[in-house]
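ERR on first pass: missing label on line 2. Operator R.T. fixed the label and resubmitted. Corrected input:
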Amino acid sequence: MTLFGYRLPAMSSLLLWALVWEIVGRLDLTFFVPPLSEVLVTLTAVIGTAPFLKALSETAQAFAAGVSAAVLIGIPVGILMGKSRLIDELLLPWVNMFLSAPLTALVPVLMVLFGFGMKSIIITTTLFAIWIIILNARAGVLQINRSLVEMARSYGANPFQAFYKIYFWAALPEILGGVRIGVIRAVKGVIIGQLLISIVGFGALFELYANNFLMAHFWAVLIVLFALAFSVSEILAYLERRVSYYAASR
Amino acid sequence: MVMPQIKEADVPDMPPQSDNAVVARGISKTYGSVEALRDLSLEFPRGQLTSLLGPSGCGKTTLLKIIAGLLKPNSGEIEVNGKPVKGPGPDRAFVFQDFALMPWANVLRNVAFGLELRGVATSEREAIAEKYIAEVGLAGFEKSYPHQLSGGMRQRVGLARALSVDADVLLMDEPFSAVDEQTRRKFQEDLLNLVQNENKTFIFVTHSIEEAVYVSDQIAILLPRPSRVSEIIRPTDLRHKNVDNIRRDPEYLDIVDSIWASLRSYVE
Amino acid sequence: MMRRSLWLKIVSAVVLFGAWQIAGMIPVSYAFPTFFESMAALIRMAGDGTLLTAYIETLRPLVVGVGISAFLGIGLGLWIGLSAKFDWLFSPIFIVMQAAPLAALIPLLVMAYGIGLTSKVFVVCIMAMPVIVLNTASAVRNTPASLKEMGRSFMASDTKIMLRIIIPAASPVIFSGLRLGVSAGFIGAILAELKITPTGVGDIITYSRSIADYPAMYAAIFSIILLAVLFLNFLERLEVYLFEGNVRGYASD
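pass 2 clean. output:
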């Protein structure tokens, strides 16, 4: 949008919304919405405290472990599905099913099987992220330009060279796109896991603040969490754009 | 097999009977129940440009890919320099209709890719690539990426890649169909020079009658369902005329007209 | 070819359920019943009506929430897609919501609205709304310019261009946004029942876990996932049927 001939940056309206929040908070309309300034003051106070850092590091660990597992398993499985018709036909219905299935319902199973701890949260995170990573890696391999493959063959590439000189790079934009969406889903997965298991990480912290009616604390942690999630997704989108310049010209 | 009828445009001025770089013998190819090629035989004289011309679906690209070793014929045999083709080999280089450039690699690496696959050392293969990049007129674009080039420039990269592996036979699959008309004319002129100066055999698939007559030493007309060679035309006389005047030469126009006359009933 | 893919589907189902059965028979864990035990529990619960009552309870917030999200979401999305001002004002909120783990808001919603239906509907709404809004907005924004110009060249009014060109052209992507919204709504509905108060299917899951009736617990989870998948599959087929030849792909996930 432009204002007085000056182009406003895309996300600048968030500042306006922050102002609205502050005013609503000051008007004392509801106990649940303290003014933004109060939340920010609390934020600076909370951010260095031991419980917050503990929650953050626990969440980061579970998130990193879950995402790594999803990437390390998901990409090879997706590439295999793209290369082999039999594997594809055996796995695709299940991948599609789990992609849209409400995986939240599986968390209680994970809890009874793997206990009320990190292990269950990591698996939840992986389950949220892996399916879209598989599907995108598969799509990336399937869309590889046939003449690029023929080019490699006609200039004498062996299968190994064809894989690491052509297939991997040609599928890279899709693979990265899948990882980006997978990571966004993993953020949701790790939080849902922590909320349901609720004795670890931010789940425990939210429980603590909610039970003690510490609204400013609650919002402060929410802001940090949302900002982190948004930054992660923006960084990945930036990386994806760096390589996808060539996606259009294939 | 019906023997193709050979029209000699100029019998006394025929070039001395040269040997054949590529020979196709009794090639048949079916896709499922569709017969693409039936018992096709054709000879490609060394050092000359042979066009494969025909309506779409006549199997000309299939034949080219069989010669390249990318497809296996159901029966029949291809010989290159007297040796049967088992698969892709260093004696042939392919130029693709859609260029088939690696979008993540710059011009230099794309051109040197054939040599890279053969394990030629980096400095050596880059020196060779630079030479051919200059030869196709792209000097200064070594560090550019394909998406920064126009369609015509991209195909020059594809051509430089094919030249840099120094194969005897260049296989070109409608190489100029994805570039604009003016660029295409420039390409055709350059191709004539290339045929004269490089001692290579060119096999050229096209759907443009004018293009085939303009650039070819020998035109094989393929007719569809199933494909066979219906006619071989050698516009030998045209090759000795001034390039600038070919397009208004009565003989050129006659050949174009007669090819159209034999093809028109096959075009939907 | 149809037969082959059907066979492979059956084979892969047999392999998966067989693995479940064997893992249950070993057993890998005291809390891991076999496939047949779980199916027996499913049939028992379906037979005595437990499942039916539970689903009526579970689907209520889902239907209400998705309905509200669809109505508000498509409206907002159209508005955002058509007006640069509203795009600037509202888009960032939904972009952040799309990336953020909104489930973290649940404890707050419970404090504000209690543990009743309102909270659960809210959970479904915050999960389902962003994708509906963003898909609608980007579908409207990406209406092919040539189509709009065609309308203008035939002197259609703005309203007519909106009703006869923009909305029909955008409807496949809007519909797929709705489908993704329903998918997210299922997550919200189940999350609400597991986190806020155990009712419906969430109640069966929680209760049977507490009395260690694992076959019933697995059966309930199996049934809700099956229901969600079948329904989303139906929507996907409906989408293909309705917009055959008009598919432009999804704007976002």
